[in-house]
């Protein structure tokens, strides 16, 4: 019996290693080239194909052992005294396995095993010359030194061809352990570090491995449905997987959101060198080269790749609809020939198979899908029933082009929306979605020029430019939501959004809206509209709300707003509040059918603040009319043209009171008290030369006469005007109403009336009052018509007289022959159409003697007493002085023609001297001093 046979028979070689060695050595002896071939093959595997696949190959063997054992396997990798140890659970080493280990050209894998003990074991030669495999069933050792000794050669030998038996010796809890004494120069710690980086990928690729320990650090693999969770000592990764004929896997986070791969390699199922650019990892049984680094081209590979592409869509469907887009391959250069083929097939599958979820929940293929060309979150949900097969979520248009999806431009969406009838709130949601895209610069605002906008009148028109965004109270917005104002593109309040302003709409607060031309037009025709059958309630409520939001400050034209009266709808400024005191002041006929005014509907009045209704023009008191730039008498005031013409110059402003002509004759005292009680009407009443005071003074009625026909009790106007009766009004109010306190005149009519009164012979007027009256007419500056008679200086009324413009004539004529006018007699003569006294023909008929002033001692003394400088020249002294005037000769005290004349009397000399010295007011004092020049005359 040979030694090898004896070893086997003794039970020390359970795997028949002796026979294997004998067979191999015999072959080398019989064919020396065979040894060379084995040596070259092992060297090629060591330095080429398996140079960095040590742990991949050992992990594959461990996974096969676990599958063979029927239980998920555990692996432990450690470094003990420069020896790398790889222990695993599962089926122990057997004779077939040993035979595979010792063969560089055969594999012992069966069924679904990846490659349990075959060519891949050659990877151990990259780090060790003395590898050993120990198992609970026994062990084997390989040795370069023992192989050289057995073959009887020096140099390089194929180490893995000759196994030697070892006793069973494995760590507790494990079934097999590979022990690799590291060759000099191999860094064991670095190997463990590299392994730690790849453990996660190994556990994903090898589902029969459940735990992997590396130098005390543990990784575990668990599966929960389609999600594989790999927990490491520091981090945890999750993979969503689909397992069919192939395995597709994509990383996901804790929420299940995919984290697509940027690049990877084909796994068969362990890594090859064929790069992939797909977002997911492919693990597939494909034909590979013996090195397992490259796939083998051919029909079998094509079939596997086509099948993998069809199954890719199953992985995609495992994701929520909004995350599926992440698994569409991105455009780019392929990483390999396999990548190019696989990408093309995947895109075809995604184009033809249903995997995209539309907004209404229907799954469609890429070719059937429609997607917006910009990402507008939330918009697709709003368009679901308008755009068929529109994808939901934030579907990426550029990505989905690769799967033949139809990309829809935002312009096409706007065309679809044009003419669509939707609730205003729906439109606001559309704007909110688009605004986000505009703000993020995903969508240019210019592309939204045709965006439809719902208006408050129910229309929906394209384009925001020219539209108004209303700001105001909730009540105002509610009222405006139903108002129809032609020409006013008023955005429905419920649709208002800042995006519209960016697109050309303008903000309009209550004040701006209230002053819009379109609203003014609607208000001014509102009465006509209501009377033609339209409902005026909405417009009335909207305008009143605008007025209220403006603080009751409104333009005057709102008075045209149609409001309900007791009989019919009327202009607001033709209505009186139900509680107004005007109801007791205006004539009853005013409120009759077709009367000037009506009373506001009581129920309607209760719905609004009184201040708002008054701002709209509804009357509680008299209305004030204000015009800062009047051009003509067109303010609808009573007798306005007459008042305008009575003024010396047209008024620069008009501040007047409306409806004075509606006051009942017996209600004027109450009307005046009401006017005085309101600041605005009181101001209008007191406006200088204003219409209100002018009209009241002439046309109001106090005890049967106009106010300007009465005088105040203390007024020194007796004879011209009668004292006003007691009507319960204060003197101040009577004065403002036109009751006379003095002779101040402001209009032509007043001046004419005064001249008529002076010409009335039934009136007893004192000479002084008559003189003051004529002066008042002159001072007024107006031009009344000439009167039918004049009041002479003696108080009598005459048809013809002279206007006294020089004092000497008064000494020659009787007082009933002249009118006294101390101020501007020439002006009074023109007004009265009378001649001046200085122009009347007159002749001095007596002879006088010339005497210089300096030669009249008595006058010199008087001049000295009064401090008067003697004038130049002198005077003709007469005794007596006679003058012929108006055909009769008269004795006078002094006269003046081309020369100065005086009678030889104290009175005559004093008047002539006072006139010459310019001291006419002192004439009476001078007369007295000439008669008695004593100090008593001057001082007492």
Main attributes?
940 residues, alpha+beta, Heat Shock Protein 90, twelve-stranded mixed sheet, four-stranded mixed sheet, 41 strands, 17% strand, disordered N terminus
> CATH superfamily of the domain at 3-220, called what?
Histidine kinase-like ATPase, C-terminal domain
* Beta strands, count: 41
CATH architecture of the domain at 3-220: 2-Layer Sandwich
Question: Which sequence of strands runs across the widest sheet?
Answer: 5-4-3-6-2-1-7-8-9-10-11-14
Q: Kindly report how far apart the N and C termini lie.
A: 190 Å
- What is the residue-mean pLDDT, rounded to a whole number? 89
List low-pLDDT spans: 1-11, 106-117
Shape summary:
rod-shaped
Helix content: 25-40%
Helix tally? 34
Which secondary-structure class do the elements indicate?
alpha+beta
Content of β-strand: 15-25%
CATH class term of the domain at 3-220: Alpha Beta
**Rg calculated over all Cα atoms:** 63 Å
Largest β sheet strand count, sense and barrel closure: 12 strands, mixed
Q: From the 3D structure, determine the CATH topology of the domain at 3-220.
A: Heat Shock Protein 90
């Amino acid at each position: 019996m040979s030694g090898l046979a004896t070893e086997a028979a003794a039970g020390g070689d359970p795997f028949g290693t002796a026979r294997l060695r004998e067979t191999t050595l015999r072959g080398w002896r019989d064919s020396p080239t065979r040894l060379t071939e084995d040596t070259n093959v092992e060297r090629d595997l060591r330095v080429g194909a398996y140079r960095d696949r040590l742990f991949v190959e050992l992990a594959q063997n461990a996974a096969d052992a676990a599958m063979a054992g029927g239980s998920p396997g555990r692996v432990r990798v450690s470094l003990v005294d420069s020896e790398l140890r790889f222990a695993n659970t599962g089926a122990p080493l057997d004779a077939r396995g040993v035979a595979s280990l010792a063969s560089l050209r055969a594999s012992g894998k069966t069924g679904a095993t990846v490659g349990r003990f075959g060519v891949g074991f050659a990877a151990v030669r990259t780090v060790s010359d003395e590898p050993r495999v120990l198992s609970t069933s026994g062990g084997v050792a390989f040795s370069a030194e023992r192989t050289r000794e057995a073959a009887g050669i020096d140099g390089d030998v194929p180490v893995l061809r000759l196994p030697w038996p070892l006793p069973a010796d494995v760590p507790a809890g494990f079934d097999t352990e590979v022990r690799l004494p590291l060759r000099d120069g191999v860094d064991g710690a670095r190997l463990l570090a590299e392994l730690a980086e790849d453990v996660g990928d190994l556990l994903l690729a090898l589902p029969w491995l459940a735990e992997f320990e590396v130098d005390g650090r543990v990784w575990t693999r668990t599966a929960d449905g389609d999600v594989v969770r790999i927990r490491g000592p520091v981090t945890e990764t999750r993979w969503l997987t689909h397992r069919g004929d192939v395995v597709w896997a994509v990383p996901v986070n804790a929420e299940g959101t995919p984290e697509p791969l940027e690049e990877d390699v084909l796994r068969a199922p362990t890594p090859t060198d064929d790069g992939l650019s797909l977002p997911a990892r492919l693990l597939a049984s494909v034909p590979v080269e013996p090195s397992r680094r490259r796939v083998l081209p051919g029909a079998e590979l094509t079939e596997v790749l086509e099948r993998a592409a069809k199954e890719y869509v199953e992985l995609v469907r495992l994701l929520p609809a909004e995350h599926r887009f992440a698994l569409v391959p991105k455009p780019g250069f392929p990483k390999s020939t396999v990548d190019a083929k696989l990408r093309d097939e995947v895109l075809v599958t995604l184009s033809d198979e249903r995997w995209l979820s539309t907004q209404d929940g229907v799954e469609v293929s890429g070719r059937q899908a429609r997607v917006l060309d910009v990402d507008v979150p939330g918009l697709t949900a709003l368009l679901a029933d308008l755009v068929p097969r529109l994808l939901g979520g934030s579907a990426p248009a550029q990505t989905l082009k690769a799967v033949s999806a139809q990309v829809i431009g935002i312009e096409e969406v706007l065309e679809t929306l044009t003419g669509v009838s939707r609730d205003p709130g729906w439109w606001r949601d559309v704007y909110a979605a688009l605004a986000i895209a505009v703000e993020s610069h995903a969508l240019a605002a210019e592309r939204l020029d045709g965006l439809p906008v719902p208006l408050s009148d129910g229309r929906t028109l394209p384009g925001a430019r020219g539209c108004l965004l209303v700001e105001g109270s909730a009540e105002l917005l509610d009222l405006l939501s139903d108002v129809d104002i032609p020409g006013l593109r008023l955005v429905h309040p419920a649709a208002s959004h800042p995006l519209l302003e960016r697109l050309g709409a303008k903000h309009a607060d209550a004040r701006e809206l209230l002053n819009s031309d379109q609203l003014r037009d609607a208000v001014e025709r509102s009465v006509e509209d209501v009377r033609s059958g339209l409902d005026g309630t909405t417009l009335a409520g909207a305008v009143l709300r605008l007025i209220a939001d403006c603080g009751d400050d409104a333009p005057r034209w709102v008075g045209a707003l149609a409001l309900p009266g007791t009989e019919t709808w009327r202009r607001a400024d033709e209505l009186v509040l139900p509680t107004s005191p005007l109801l007791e002041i205006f004539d009853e006929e005013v409120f009759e059918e077709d009367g000037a005014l009506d009373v506001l509907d009581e129920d309607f009045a209760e719905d609004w603040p009184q201040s708002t209704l008054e701002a709209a023009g509804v009357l509680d008191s008299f209305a004030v009319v204000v015009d800062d730039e009047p051009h003509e008498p067109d303010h609808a005031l009573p007798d306005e043209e007459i008042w305008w013409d009575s003024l010396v110059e047209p008024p620069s402003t008009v501040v007047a009171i409306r409806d004075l002509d509606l006051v009942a004759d017996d209600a004027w005292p109450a009307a005046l008290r009401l006017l005085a009680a309101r600041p605005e009407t009181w101001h209008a009443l007191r406006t200088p030369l204003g219409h209100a005071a002018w009209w009241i003074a002439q046309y109001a009625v106090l005890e049967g006469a106009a106010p300007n026909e009465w005088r105040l009790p203390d007024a020194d106007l007796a004879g011209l005007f009668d004292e006003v009766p007691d009507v319960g009004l204060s003197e101040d109010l009577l004065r403002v109403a036109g009751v006379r306190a003095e002779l101040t005149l402001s209009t032509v009519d007043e001046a004419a009336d005064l001249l008529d009164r002076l010409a009335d012979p039934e009136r007893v007027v004192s000479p002084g009052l008559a003189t003051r009256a004529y002066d008042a007419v002159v001072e007024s500056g107006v031009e009344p018509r000439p009167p039918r008679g004049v009041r002479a200086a003696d108080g009598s009324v005459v048809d013809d007289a002279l206007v006294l413009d020089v004092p000497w004539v008064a000494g020659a004529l009787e007082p009933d022959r002249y009118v006294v006018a101390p101020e501007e007699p020439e002006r009074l003569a023109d007004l009265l159409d009378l001649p001046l006294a200085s122009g009347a023909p007159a002749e001095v008929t007596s002879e006088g003697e010339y005497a210089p002033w300096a030669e009249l001692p008595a006058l010199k003394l008087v001049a000295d007493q009064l401090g008067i400088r003697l004038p130049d020249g002198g005077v003709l002294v007469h005794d007596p002085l006679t003058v012929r005037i108006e055909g009769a000769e008269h004795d006078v005290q002094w006269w003046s023609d081309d020369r100065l004349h005086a009678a030889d009397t104290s009175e005559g000399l004093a008047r002539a001297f006072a006139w010459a010295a310019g001291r006419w007011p002192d004439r009476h004092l001078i007369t007295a001093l000439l008669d008695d020049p004593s100090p008593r005359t001057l001082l007492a």
